[in-house]
Specification:
Blueprint: E1 5-8, E2 11-16, E3 30-32, E4 38-40, E5 48-53, H1 60-72, E6 80-86, H2 90-100, E7 106-109, H3 115-119, E8 123-124, E9 131-132, E10 135-139, E11 145-150, H4 160-171
Parallel strand pairs: 5-6, 6-7
Antiparallel strand pairs: 1-2, 2-8, 3-4, 5-10, 8-9, 10-11
Length: 172
């Protein structure tokens, strides 16, 4: 079996954890919310959920991805719960969302114990600092993954249309 990798700045790096797919049970995690509470999968609402994973909100593609999903889910707020997951500090995540007027997504910081990155297979190994690889996961009310995209190169955008369509499909 070949090692899973992601391209970061013209170099390939291994990814820690499993490669999940649609139909798999979403693994548990413990991330820090902006309030510094630990949020687990069980602590998220039992409805359609989007987990938009980014390396850092302080980069152009990550910023654009977060703002794109924030706009896309604005009309579905009661039917879905949407999260941006990164290894950024919760304070930096909150500052970004305030500055960019992002109100429809909640940030989750994986700095608590790295469990999201490891359990969802998006933790990049071998960098000077830990970062998560860009990915999208849609999880239904029964904690089943219905859509999953691991973006093969950190600097490339995910397929927004497919992710939003998958979210709408499980939101009802």
């Amino acid at each position: 079996m070949s090692e899973r990798q992601v391209k970061f700045k013209d170099k390939m790096f291994p990814l820690v954890g499993p490669q999940l797919k649609a139909g798999d049970a979403a693994p548990d995690f413990a991330c820090a919310a902006p309030t510094l509470e630990a949020i687990t999968l069980a602590g998220t609402p039992k409805k359609a959920r989007l987990f938009s994973v980014v390396p850092s909100l302080d980069t152009g593609v990550c910023s654009a991805q977060t703002k794109k999903f924030d706009e896309a889910v604005a009309g579905m707020k009661d039917k879905v719960a949407c999260y941006t997951v990164s290894l950024d500090m919760p304070f930096a995540q909150k500052r970004f969302c305030t500055a960019e007027n992002v109100t429809n997504l909640q940030n989750l910081s994986d700095l608590h114990n790295g469990s999201f990155g490891k359990n969802f297979g998006v933790l990049i190994q071998g960098l000077v600092i830990p970062l998560l690889s860009r990915a999208i996961f849609v999880v239904d009310a029964n904690n089943k993954i219905t859509y999953c995209e691991y973006v093969p190169e950190v600097g490339i955008h995910p397929n927004y249309d497919n992710a939003i369509a998958a979210l709408k499909a499980v939101a009802g």
